[in-house]
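Re: beginner question about structure tokens

> Can someone show what the tokenized structure looks like for a real chain? I only ever see the sequence side.

Sure, here's an example I had lying around. Input first:
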Amino acid sequence: MGYPWKDEFGYGEIRRANLAAVHEDSRDTSLYFGTKLARLLSGRVVHETSYHLAARTDSAPRDPRYIDRIHYGSVVTWQCAIERKSRYVKSKLGEADRQLQGLGPAMVHMAMDVELARESLSLKCARNIEAVKAFEAKSTLAVIFVHYLVPRISEAHS
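And the corresponding structure tokens:
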């Protein structure tokens, strides 16, 4: 059970940390203090650049970056690329429109990486659609395609 929140900047949920998952994973070995620990505590995939992890732990004797035991922990995640991506679409459309002036009917394809597990994906797509609809071409631009690419990154790789 969580405690949802929502304001003018975003929304989310406050939930209990899953200490049992960390204890289970580190029972016979040490655990690196990083994304895997954050994922185990939160119960969700945690992205490298948008989380903060705090915990009281006992360090592994051979390497203090690894933990042998956790007493408590907290993970905070965030997302803040929605407006930037909308501006990206606007700027790329403007760039393409300038290149197409004086030419016959044309189409534009643009691509951007997305992460399917992110709560902001539907809002980002909606803002991109708004940006495309509001765009006023000065060229003979007839069709616009926006492609969303989903990179495959495993936890072991990251």
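Each token stands for a local structural state, so reading them left to right follows the chain. The radius of gyration is 22 Å.
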